[in-house]
């Protein structure tokens, strides 16, 4: 048993290049981030549920996922065993980086998970409600500094949408980009910025322990188990969800596409996947086929509008 | 229960035979990946996550902690022996360590690195256990302006510490800054100096630059000398072990390195490298043997090695108390926690004390295992140097290339590796120090971003940079470090200083 265990660890550590895999999933980010975790969760559920015998994950980090996307589109064309993980952040990154490869160059299969944005302030902040924050923003947009993740990402887009909905010039917002929700969290806890915005999961334990005050979440309806109003309730029509999806290679035949879609549906419906969603705190947002295609097109054009409003895209 | 009882209970949990086995596997794997340039602990832990899914949470986290500590240590071996830093935090170790190895003192260099890592790991882990909540409060005081002041201090101390000529050191540093500008600007998301090449959008990878400058540049330099190469490498001169003087010179450096590394590791925007730079600069200033710096001073190995292991423990402070991952490895460990439905954060110490204290205790045990694993191997490692040069450098090239490809399978990355290797070679020929280039690449973006963040928050008011007490103190120290030598020189003691500078050659 022990030998088996050791052998499997060594095999895991040495199996860097893919060896005759049923699926190879590109995680277009460094290990540890959301896309990497999504790819590795798909890997373990696909194997444990017997959907695929051998799944490899490969990290191709860089530039909001556009490096991985470009590599995937050019190298995997016609390969039905290749998948890539992506999401809302990639939509923004394609626009800001003027990426030559877009989501039109791959075959989006399905949206899998989503996470809503949460707006928080330090516990000792004078701002008690989302209304207070919006008032402050209206009075002097520059005086309200927002700490969040990378520029042009979901957090930044959400702040742009909030400003626009509140009738404030989105180019005037004072958004301070940090290299991830974690570093932003430190700045918020240290009261370096007025408010913080990131995925709810980043703030959850701080909100529960009372060091951060949760002002609002960016969902359409209140989230079960989260004691906070939606942004909508404060009178601003803003709903933002940081969703993640899986896409297949370009140039697949209809049969190949159907086969991949069937495997992903099996994955999304499996007990193992539902269990994973629960432990990771991800919302199940499974959406496939034409409905997903439509939604994706809508998201792309809405994102383009807001990025232009903020001034990140000309 | 008191902290101490919790810790004892944790040691009992971590000392169970199965957990000891996990710790051993962890440190062994960690040391192995630390030795390979490019492949770091983050990737290893990520690869192991699915494998450990079936294990109990305690066991797998103990293994991850072992990998983390092992990786921090493993990088120093190749730095010292082959002048090829395996990780960015062991770049500084190569400066003095490799000079020592060439003078036949590779044994003591490896030993002081191993024991220093152990001492630092031990003290820092205990600090993690007892003062984590206080340290994290201190770390949160650091906002953008305080970080900027810290970076200014780092630049001032570091640029005077590397190399024999300030002008040459600064030139190298600015080459690093120039390289650091390449890529997407973090604060606005706009691409700079990428010339439409997608591979440049994410900037230049620190390990690629370091491996290229040190390993490839060095190989080219040696190859270009052919058989005429003057520096005959002596594998072992004197004892493989540290002598009395080595101990006397090392222990203070270990302690100072720990004191510098731990708090910097605990800062959310810190990072192991900064601690090693500051430690090296400190040792160079305080040493009684300034003439040895640049030629293999043992303090220059002992201090930075202690600092990088101490900061590895420091990184766990924000992870465990805030749920805040500050390094890639910590981010994966966070994913590991979440895999078992545990949410690190202020509540973790209260809700899962067994696990937290088990982890802290297993860090102590992993630390012991590293020492046990590595000290006996010192004699074996130094034998590497007896390999004939052509074989040795062919091997280094192979490892450097494999490591880079393993971390990022891209032809462009390989091209950059070779191009920077050539740059390193040319700089070496003309006597420019190469370490400041890497320092510039690491610290440049940090300083720029923090300055711009501070000014954005204050809406352009420059005075905020001096009005925070912490920032003001750091800036005053930096100014003193810059001005005092000038005053000394002006008062006629310049001869001594320039003599010192000359003998550093």
From TrEMBL, chain A:
<keyword id="KW-0732">Signal</keyword>
<dbReference type="Pfam" id="PF03401">
    <property type="entry name" value="TctC"/>
</dbReference>
<comment type="similarity">
    <text>Belongs to the UPF0065 (bug) family.</text>
</comment>
<dbReference type="InterPro" id="IPR042100">
    <property type="entry name" value="Bug_dom1"/>
</dbReference>
<feature type="signal peptide">
    <location>
        <begin position="1"/>
        <end position="20"/>
    </location>
</feature>
<dbReference type="InterPro" id="IPR005064">
    <property type="entry name" value="BUG"/>
</dbReference>
<protein>
    <submittedName>
        <fullName>Tricarboxylic transport membrane protein</fullName>
    </submittedName>
</protein>
From TrEMBL, chain B:
<keyword id="KW-0472">Membrane</keyword>
<keyword id="KW-0812">Transmembrane</keyword>
<feature type="domain" description="DUF112">
    <location>
        <begin position="20"/>
        <end position="438"/>
    </location>
</feature>
<feature type="transmembrane region" description="Helical">
    <location>
        <begin position="147"/>
        <end position="163"/>
    </location>
</feature>
<feature type="transmembrane region" description="Helical">
    <location>
        <begin position="464"/>
        <end position="488"/>
    </location>
</feature>
<feature type="transmembrane region" description="Helical">
    <location>
        <begin position="169"/>
        <end position="187"/>
    </location>
</feature>
<feature type="transmembrane region" description="Helical">
    <location>
        <begin position="391"/>
        <end position="411"/>
    </location>
</feature>
<protein>
    <submittedName>
        <fullName>Tricarboxylic transport membrane protein</fullName>
    </submittedName>
</protein>
<feature type="transmembrane region" description="Helical">
    <location>
        <begin position="61"/>
        <end position="82"/>
    </location>
</feature>
<feature type="transmembrane region" description="Helical">
    <location>
        <begin position="20"/>
        <end position="49"/>
    </location>
</feature>
<feature type="transmembrane region" description="Helical">
    <location>
        <begin position="355"/>
        <end position="379"/>
    </location>
</feature>
<feature type="transmembrane region" description="Helical">
    <location>
        <begin position="109"/>
        <end position="135"/>
    </location>
</feature>
<feature type="transmembrane region" description="Helical">
    <location>
        <begin position="316"/>
        <end position="335"/>
    </location>
</feature>
<dbReference type="Pfam" id="PF01970">
    <property type="entry name" value="TctA"/>
</dbReference>
<dbReference type="InterPro" id="IPR002823">
    <property type="entry name" value="DUF112_TM"/>
</dbReference>
<keyword id="KW-1133">Transmembrane helix</keyword>
<feature type="transmembrane region" description="Helical">
    <location>
        <begin position="417"/>
        <end position="443"/>
    </location>
</feature>
């Amino acid at each position: 048993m022990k030998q088996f265990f050791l052998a499997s660890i060594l095999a895991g550590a040495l199996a860097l290049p893919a060896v005759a895999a049923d699926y190879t999933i590109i995680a277009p980010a460094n290990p540890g981030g959301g896309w990497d975790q999504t790819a590795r969760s798909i890997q373990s559920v696909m194997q444990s549920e017997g959907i695929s015998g051998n799944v490899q994950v490969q990290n191709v980090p860089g530039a909001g996922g556009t490096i991985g996307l470009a590599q995937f589109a050019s190298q995997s064309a016609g390969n039905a065993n290749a998948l890539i993980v992506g999401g809302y952040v990639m939509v923004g990154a394609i626009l800001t980086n003027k990426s030559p490869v877009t989501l039109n160059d791959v075959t989006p299969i399905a949206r899998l998970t989503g996470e809503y944005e949460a707006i928080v302030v330090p516990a000792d902040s004078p701002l008690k409600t989302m209304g207070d924050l919006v008032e402050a923003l209206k009075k002097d947009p520059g005086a309200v500094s927002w700490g969040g993740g990378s520029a042009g990402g979901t957090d930044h887009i959400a702040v742009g949408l909030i400003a626009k909905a509140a009738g404030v010039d989105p180019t005037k917002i004072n958004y301070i980009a940090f290299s991830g929700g974690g570093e932003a969290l430190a700045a918020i806890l240290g009261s370096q910025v007025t408010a913080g915005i990131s995925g709810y999961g980043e703030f959850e334990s701080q909100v529960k322990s009372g060091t951060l005050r949760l002002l609002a979440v960016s969902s359409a309806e209140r989230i079960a188990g989260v004691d906070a109003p939606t942004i909508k309730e404060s009178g601003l029509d803003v709903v933002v969800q940081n969703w993640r999806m899986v896409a297949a290679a370009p140039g697949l035949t209809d049969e190949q596409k159907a086969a991949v879609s069937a495997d992903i549906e099996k994955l999304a419906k499996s007990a193992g996947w539902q269990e994973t969603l629960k432990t990771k705190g991800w919302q199940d947002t499974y959406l496939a086929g034409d409905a997903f295609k439509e939604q994706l097109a809508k998201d792309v054009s809405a994102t383009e509008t807001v990025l232009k409003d903020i001034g990140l895209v000309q | 229960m008191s902290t101490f009882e919790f810790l004892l209970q944790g040691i009992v949990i971590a000392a169970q035979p199965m957990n000891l086995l996990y710790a051993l596997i962890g440190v062994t794997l960690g040391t192995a990946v630390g030795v390979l340039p490019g492949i770091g602990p983050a990737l290893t832990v990520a690869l192991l996550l699915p494998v450990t899914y079936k294990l109990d949470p305690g066991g797998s986290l103990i293994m991850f902690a072992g990998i983390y500590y092992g990786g921090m240590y493993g990088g120093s071996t190749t730095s010292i022996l082959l002048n090829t830093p395996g990780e960015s935090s062991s770049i500084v170790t190569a400066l003095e360590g490799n000079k020592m190895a060439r003078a036949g003192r590779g044994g003591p260099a490896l030993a002081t690195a191993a024991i220093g890592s152990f001492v630092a790991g031990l003290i820092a882990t205990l600090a993690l256990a007892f003062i984590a909540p206080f340290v994290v409060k201190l770390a949160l005081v650091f906002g953008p302006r305080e970080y900027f002041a810290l970076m200014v201090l780092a630049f001032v101390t570091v640029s005077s510490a590397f190399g024999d000529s300030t002008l040459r050191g600064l030139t190298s540093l600015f080459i690093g800054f120039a390289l650091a500008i390449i890529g997407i600007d973090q604060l606005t998301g706009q691409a700079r100096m990428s010339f439409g090449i997608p591979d440049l959008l994410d900037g230049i990878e620190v390990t690629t630059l370091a491996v290229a400058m040190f390993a490839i540049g060095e190989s080219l330099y040696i190859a270009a000398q052919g058989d005429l190469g003057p520096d005959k490498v002596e594998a072992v001169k004197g004892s493989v072990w540290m002598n009395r003087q080595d101990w006397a010179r090392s222990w203070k450096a270990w302690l100072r390195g720990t004191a510098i590394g731990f708090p910097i590791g605990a800062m959310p925007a810190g990072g192991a490298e900064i601690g090693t730079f500051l430690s090296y600069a400190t040792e160079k200033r305080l040493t009684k043997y300034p003439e040895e710096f640049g030629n293999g001073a043992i303090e220059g190995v002992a201090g930075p090695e202690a600092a990088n292991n101490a900061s590895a423990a420091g990184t766990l402070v924000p992870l465990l108390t805030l749920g805040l991952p500050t390094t890639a490895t910590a981010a994966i460990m966070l994913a590991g926690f979440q895999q078992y439905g545990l949410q690190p954060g202020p509540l973790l110490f209260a809700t899962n004390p067994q696990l937290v204290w088990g982890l802290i205790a297993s860090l102590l045990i992993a630390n012991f295992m590293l020492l046990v694993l590595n000290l006996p191997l010192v004699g074996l490692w130094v034998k590497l140097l007896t390999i004939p040069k052509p074989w040795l450098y062919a091997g280094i090239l192979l490892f450097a290339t494999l490591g880079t490809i393993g971390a990022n399978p891209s032809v462009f990355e390989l091209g950059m590796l070779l191009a920077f290797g050539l740059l390193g070679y040319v700089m070496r020929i003309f006597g420019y120090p190469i370490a400041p280039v890497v320092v510039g690449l690491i610290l440049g973006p940090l300083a720029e971003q923090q300055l711009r963040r501070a000014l954005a928050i204050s809406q352009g008011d420059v005075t905020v940079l001096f009005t925070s007490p912490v920032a003001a103190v750091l800036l005053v120290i930096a100014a003193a470090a810059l001005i005092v030598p000038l005053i000394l020189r002006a008062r006629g003691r310049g001869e001594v200083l320039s003599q010192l500078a000359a003998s550093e050659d």
